[in-house]
Amino acid sequence: xxxxxxxxxxxxxxDYRTNIKGVFAAGDSIEKKYRQITTATADGTISALNxxxxxxxxxxxxxxxxxxxx
Length: 70
Ligand SMILES: Cc1cc2nc3c(=O)[nH]c(=O)nc-3n(C[C@H](O)[C@H](O)[C@H](O)COP(=O)(O)OP(=O)(O)OC[C@H]3O[C@@H](n4cnc5c(N)ncnc54)[C@H](O)[C@@H]3O)c2cc1C
Prior knowledge:
By secondary structure, this protein is an all-alpha fold. The protein has a single domain (1-70), classed as FAD/NAD(P)-binding domain. The chain is built from 2 helices and no strands. 11% of the residues are buried. Flavin-adenine dinucleotide (FAD) binds next to α1. Flavin-adenine dinucleotide binds next to α1.
């Protein structure tokens, strides 16, 4: 998993995806400016919704790697 030099901090993209397929992260574990309860909660919501979207896409009959690449 891609991490910063601090090793405990995980790098995610705008969808909270890590560089490992199907693994999402949120909250204090990710690289970001503000570490607060409200930001962690928002991260968790977005990350979970994106994880659901990812699962739905890979379960779809017309699933392709390109469909989930975004
Ligand atoms: C002293 C202090 C004061 C703070 N005061 C404020 C404040 O006043 N207001 C505010 O908004 N924010 C405050 N924060 C920041 C806020 O607490 C965090 O940003 C927020 O809790 C992050 O939520 P999280 O779910 O990402 O991580 P956490 O709340 O740290 O939750 C992570 C959970 O994962 C568990 N865990 C860890 N490793 C494993 C493992 N291997 N397997 C299973 N479980 C594991 C931990 O036990 C923990 O329960 C404070 C932080 C600290 C340290």
